[in-house]
Amino acid sequence: MDKQQQLYQWLMNYQRRDEEYNAFDWDCGMTRYKGRGIGNKELIIVNDTEQRAWQITEPNGEIVGFTLDDLDMQNICATDCAHLARKMIAYYRFDVERFKNGKAEVIWTLQPEGCYYADEDGFGSTDDEEVCIKAVIDTHCQVLEKFKVSERVEIPQIVEDDELVDEIF
User: Fold this and answer.
1) pTM for the full model?
2) Cys bridge to 128: 25, 72, 114, 146, which one at CB 3.0-4.6 A?
3) Beta-strand (E) ranges in the chain?
4) pLDDT by residue (tens digit) across 112-141?
């Protein structure tokens, strides 16, 4: 029995699994388990079809499912966040999206947007730009496309109803 099969068996037999993990079944033979609780960044990906599991991150955010070789450092060094990537710790968002056609995107926020640091009155905000890197993995958590800087997608501004009415008439 290999390491992934052992982790799968442990997780499936763990008595407190439902208390300590949020499970997201993607209906494709793959399931994502995320640790519950404030500050718990544990992430486990399960291939239910093959009864194998991969530990991606530890509860403290340490990334154990990937190595520095899985990062396109030439691309990442173009940002001011390469030092954060080299630490292999997920301080902010780190997640695996839904599997489609045997592939899934892994998203890792190296640096949040500056408003992340603001208090409820808006003080403490910085002018930092959000920096995310993305990779693509298969159903065995093997990297198909290395982590590299992703383009930021601007969210369209919501128009107030009054403004919309003024434009129509």
Assistant:
1) 0.80
2) 114
3) 21-25, 30-35, 43-47, 52-57, 94-96, 103-111, 131-138, 143-149
4) 644 444 556 555 555 567 789 999 999 999
